[in-house]
Structure formats: C-alpha cells, structure tokens
Amino acid sequence: MSYKITLLRGDGIGPEIVGQAVRVMDKAAALYGFGIEYADALIGGIAVDTFNDPLPRETVDMCKSSDAVLLGAVGGSKWEGLPAHLLPETGLLGIRKELALFANLRPARIFGPLREASPLKSQIIGDALDILIVRELTGGIYFGDRGRFDDNGSPAAFDTEKYNVDEIRRILKIGFESAMGRGKKLCSVDKANVLESSRLWRQTAVEMAKEYPEVELRHLYVDNCAMQLVINPGQFDVIVTSNMFGDILSDEASVISGSIGMLASASLGSTKLGLYEPIHGSAPDIAGQHKANPLATILSCAMLMRYSLGESDAADSIEKAVAKTLDDGFRTADICKKGEKCVTTEQMGDAVCERLL
Ligand code: IPM
Ligand code: MG
To answer: Whose CA is nearest to atom 7 of ligand 1?
Structure first.
C-alpha cells in the first residue's frame, strides 16, 4: 500500500516543521508497512512570490489528487499590505473551501509533563484536560460578503456572518458524533443573545439533540465560553462552534494546554481527503532559527494517518512517541522552563523518531 501526500510547506517556520513531520511519517510508514509518496506544492506567501497567486490552480489539483495534505503555515509581514486576493491567508481559506473541508477538529489536551508550561494554576487544570474543538471551516463571516463603502463621507467596511441550516447541521453532526465517541458531552457555542445566525444555530442544535439522546448538550455564549475555559477547562469535552468563534477559542485552548506549538488540527469534509496543519501561524520572528516546535505538526500527522489513511496503529504510535519525548524532558523554546535545556527543531524531530515503535 502506498499513499500520496501533498506537502504545502508554506512560509516562515512552515518548511522547518514540515521537514521534521516528514521524517516522522517516513519512520512510521516503514514500521507499519506502508509507503508514502510526497509531492510539494506552493501556497501562501511563497506562492505569491513565485506565481503572484496565494493558491495556484496546480496546487489545488495536486491536493485533490492526493490521499491527504499536510500544511505548515502561511503568512508573514512581507505580504501584509497586499490586496486581499494576494494575501497568503486567502490561499489557506481558499484551499479549505476548494477541498470542501467544512469540519476542523482541534484537540487540546495537556501532556502531563507540560502542566507547568500552562499559564493556568495546577488546581484549575485539575486532573486532566482533554477538549475537542469542532470548528466550522468553510462558512460564516470568514467567507461572507464583505466590502468597503462610503458612509456619508466616512470610509466604512462590513463583513457578514451567514449560515444556512444545512451548513449548521453538518458541523453539528460532527460535534454530536465526536461527543458520542468520547465523553458524550457537547457544548455548542454561539452568541444567540445578539446574532440571528446564532439563534438559527442554537435552534438547530436543540432539534438535533433528539437524534442523540445519549449526548448531554448545552449551550454557551462565546464570551462566557472564553471565560469558562480559563476558570474551569475540565468541564469541557467537545465544543462545537462557528468558524470565527472556533478560530478564537482554539487559540485560547491551545495556550491552556501549554503552548500553541503543541496543537494539531484536521480539516475534514465528506470524503477521506483531509488537510492537516498545526493551529499556530508561520512565526516569522523565529523562522530559520531552528527554534520552532515541530510537535503540533507531528501530531497533525498522527491525525492524518488516522482519518485519511486509516492507519490508526501508526497514528497511535506517533502520539505515544510524542508523549514519551516530552516525558523524557525534550523541550523546544516555547515549552522550556527557566534553567531547562532547550532543543532545536531538528533535535525534537530526532527524539520523536527514536521513540517511534
Ligand atoms: C487558523 C488561522 C487561520 C484562520 C488564518 C491564518 C487565516 O488563524 O488556522 O486558525 O483564521 O483560520
Ligand atoms: Mg487561528
């Protein structure tokens, strides 16, 4: 068996972290008896520099003809002032839309040895922290109508949050089903006290709850959810929410679990083809310095093997190797306490590879 994986290394630290992830995937493939063929394609700033397009057609076609896509990160100050259609981020939103990846799974769990890296006090974290954020990824305000206009002489701008009931149902379904496979607790997050789109969201969640009698559903307003995450994160099992709220809450959840450099994600649609990426950005300030934490990308590869390749043993073994690497004291700068020895991006990759069994 051999799989095709498209690599979108992207900008900033993207190439460094994807480089380590590829080494880990190769080792896992050799251990579990399958092959991987990689093909590189451009996205983001580097694609703008090369083709004047953050998402060249060729990239989309290559992604569509592969079993899975691994993405590093896009963006950087170099491209910040460009018109919207040339922004690296437009390429990222574009590939999610092109591949119809409407569901973004972002697991935030705390690895035991990293408890002290969390900004939260140990008694607040409690015994364990294991939250799955299910973020809607191809709708809402990130894809709604937007524009500039003249508001009686003052320059004005607008963005629109719009969801239809089918879009809401399909993401809630992922939320309910994920909850069924875990702790059976689902928290739907909205702003139904203000937004009409949130009222439709909540109404749909209430109706769908009848189809999942075993799941305990509750609703939180997004502002309250942001607060609950830092005062009692242990109360959450699965959180399902819109594109923008999920973007914001998943960054918050990630630092609670120690570092944004630890959080993986899977973007899925209705076929097996998925896109996997760390939730952090391109960190241009540390690019090329061998400091970046590759673990979020490596953990994204575990999700890739589980969801797109169906190689769940390889996926489990990557996750175990990461846990062991942390147990054995390996720390990149972002998770390194004062006085601890920091390792480089490559040394972290080495350590995970050595622990893969
Ligand atoms: C993320 C990122 C992206 C998003 C940006 C870079 C467009 O913040 O994956 O969370 O908002 O989806
Ligand atoms: Mg984000």
So the answer is: 89
